[in-house]
Design brief:
This protein folds into 2 domains: about 90 residues, Ribosomal Protein L25, Chain P, CATH 2.40.240; about 80 residues, Beta Complex (RNA Polymerase Alpha Subunit, Chain A, domain 2), CATH 2.170.120.20. The chain is built from 2 helices and 12 strands. By secondary structure, it is mainly β. About 10% of the residues lie in helices and about 45% in strands. β4 and β5 form a beta hairpin.
């Protein structure tokens, strides 16, 4: 479980001081809940996210344990350091938008024909409750040749899960290398 602290002060000076001490600024929110202004140790947060196996995970902030998902994050444009993260509380029975990762299984045959495998969408936005949320979309990519794509309409969505992207949007594909 990821441990965090509650931020007392919201001033620019306090935020800079926390960042200087190695903290990542975070906002935790949810439908009908009061926003929690928190901070996590940056290195611990990154390690935790790299090793997590589910979309939703638990955090402990100020003695409260919350099940959250990463909704959005901001990076420094120069150094690519994480500056801020928005965490949404995954409440049972409440429909919300979640970003589900896409995994390709196999090796496309188009790689032998001088093709390049590309993830057009690494995460697909879906609207559902936390109970119906798939952990990831597993796509078999062995049959893809140069110029072939797997589109949003080809995804197998579980019952109760909706995707609002255009069905013609590619998720993964093999493009011709120049």
């Amino acid at each position: 479980m990821l441990e965090g602290i509650v931020r007392d002060s919201m001033t620019k000076q306090a935020t800079k001081s926390l960042r200087r001490d190695g903290f990542l600024i975070a906002n935790i929110y949810g439908k009908g809940l009061e926003n929690v202004h928190a901070a996590f140790k940056t290195n611990e947060f990154i390690k935790f996210l790299k090793n997590k196996t589910t979309v939703a995970f638990d955090v402990n902030v100020g003695g409260n344990v919350l099940k959250v998902v990463v909704q959005e994050y901001q990076k420094c444009p120069i150094t690519s350091d994480l500056l801020h993260v928005d965490l949404m509380v995954a409440q049972p029975g409440v429909k919300a938008t979640y970003y589900v990762p896409v995994n390709g299984i196999g090796t496309p045959k188009g790689l032998k024909n001088k093709g390049l495998f590309v993830y057009h969408k690494k995460r697909v936005p879906v609207k559902t409750t936390i109970e119906n949320l798939p952990e990831s979309f597993e796509l078999t990519i062995d049959h893809l040749d140069t110029g072939d794509n797997i589109l949003v309409r080809d995804l197998v969505l579980p019952e109760g899960v909706q995707c609002f992207l255009d069905p013609r949007v590619p998720v993964v594909g093999v493009i011709k290398a120049k």
